[in-house]
Request: fold
Amino acid sequence: MFKFPNNKKFAFTIVDDTDDAYLENIKPIYDLLAENQIKVTKTVWVYPVRDEQASKGDSLSRAKYLEFIQDIQKNGFEISLHNVGSGSFVRSEIIDGLNVFESKLASMPRVHINHSYNPDNIYCGSKRFSFPFNYIVQKMYSNYSNFSGEIVESEHFWGDLHKKHIDFSRNYEVDDINTSKKNPYMPYRDKQYDEYANYWFSSTFASNQWMFKKQVNKMSIDRLENEGGVCILYTHLGYYMVDGVIDPHFKKMIEYLGSKNSGWYVPVSTVLDFLNQNKKSNNISEYIPTYFKKWIEFRSLWTRIKYRYFVKLDDFHFKKSNSYDKRTDSINQ
Reply:
């Protein structure tokens, strides 16, 4: 078990994927989080969406949204990168986008999350996995390819900047609220990606409110506390407003977490810095062992398959539901 700051017994945080997040449907969510003193990491886009047939959401180019982002940052929330935008961006645009991020938010992002089918994604698609799982991904998701953010010859290359500025990148997903229990090596380095990446971390798979309800409930929160674990939950908070109302289960669980003085509720990079220091204090290698990497690759891929083809709670199914159709993403810009 970890020795958390201020005698806390467990840690809970969220990486909020900015897809579908507009000022109007995301501000109430962050108001709720702030009221319960749960500080999380919100990803952003710098540029407006370019592939509107595939993605939607606000960016820092919208003045009121930028003001909201700056406000929550001042209130202790972490702002990170979900690529500089949704769509295709070349190196010069990525450089400019990073500079805009820094000028608007006073620092470069420490955390980066690859976005969907962006060609500038870093080590994405089948490259996330080693053999034989990379081959399986190629066969199962043949369209999930052509990512070249780490390829020097590509017009989308920014691997050198990723290495320079980004401390933590997300990779494997786990099917449990206790992320650290399923991957005790995070944050970790991986020799396969060392040239253009630093540390990697896992996340609890909960991409929408259906999955959130499965992963986060009073029983699982209490178990996380008893295990003294760390939850880094990955989701899209832009989904959580339906018919102008915050998802009831999400609201109830955030309030339940907020009622627990034993919880450490800080942004992702703060949690990962803590875990990194804990590893160093215990002389644990920075690099993920090969045998464990194979195991967690298998579990991560199985998690995706499980919720796509068997339990059917992932975004592929969620986006076909009434819950997604009724979310409040209509805005007047």
Observations:
- Residues 10-325 form a domain with the TIM Barrel fold (CATH 3.20.20).
- DSSP finds 13 helices and ten strands in the chain.
